[in-house]
Amino acid sequence: MAANRKPLEKHRRIVIKIGSALLVDRQTGLKKSWLDAMCADIAALKGKGVEVLVVSSGAIALGRTVLNLPAGALKLEESQAAAAVGQIALARAWSESLSTDQIIAGQILLTLGDTEERRRYLNARATINQLLKLGSVPIINENDTVATTEIRYGDNDRLAARVATMVGADLLVLLSDIDGLYTAPPHLDPEARFLETIAEITPEIEAMAGGAASELSRGGMRTKIDAGKIATTAGCAMIIASGKPVHPLKAIEAGARSSWFAPSRSPVTARKTWIAGQLLPAGSIAIDAGAETALRSGKSLLPAGVRQVTGTFSRGDTIAIFNNSGREIARGLAGYDADEARQIAGKKSAEIAAILGYAGRTAMVHRDDMVMTAPSEPRSGAEKDEKKGKLHA
Q1: Confidence band (pLDDT; 50, 70, 90) for 186?
Q2: What are the two backbone dihedrals, phi and then psi, of residue 328, each rounded to the nearest 5 degrees?
């Protein structure tokens, strides 16, 4: 076990994400014995003072089984109908299994807008915190009955990470059909190495992500790494582990193989956590090397360092900031509308008034409204090898 990795019972608040394939069998439906064992694990943690939230996939998978829909990809309206049936069945199953240990389940259905829009984000957080205060276990899922392809999470890995940061959890556990992160897909590459500890999510780590696993699961290693970036930036550790054992949480405690992602040593504030976790930036800004250096030293983004402005956004919208290499390094709230940002890009702050006709803000994105989302890239091959060696240790 990693030096800084704590037993599950030593955490204050844990979010557990459960993949569809763990809960639902395509032929027979709900895996009730597995769910009962999972709930027993949750009860054991709650008995030791740990607050537990569950982000449960399975509504569409369960609904399509109940409705006897054919195998393969579903049309949007078929997915929404399956979710409508499956959500009822899934909530009932969780409620019944948790009640064995006198635990009350509370259902929360979220859409992308509930976490992307600040007021709705705060309202959802207040509801979840109240359920925890009352001793309930919130069972959270994306509201697939109304979400469309254009406005959805599309996977519960990132949703779980957003929930974890929303409620200030100190651990996110992603349970799926793979036991952790490998240097390459293990079923394709016999030389793939397992990574037990990931100190930070570097470009090399991101490059190791694979694709989605099955028709019952929309997520893959790519979404898990994305979830890790959201969670660890906010100071929340993350574990990727197999959920196949009958008691998956007990298996982790007993030393079953899993990958642990260390939380950031300098987590961002609650407001910046919301900014960093935004999944749909309204636009983007490309900056030069000098501006990147300034941002990494804690300074604001000035117009002079901006090379390109992309998208249509308004002042206050979240935008992504890319470096010379085309890699996203930060997110922040725009200080200008997109059209104005294009006019002053590359210009000195003293020129803003003459260009726009009024004395605008000095910063394109102020440091108080910005959070770095990626570590510095090593400057040489030797540095890359050194860092890579630490991560793979």
Answers
A1: confident
A2: -70, 130
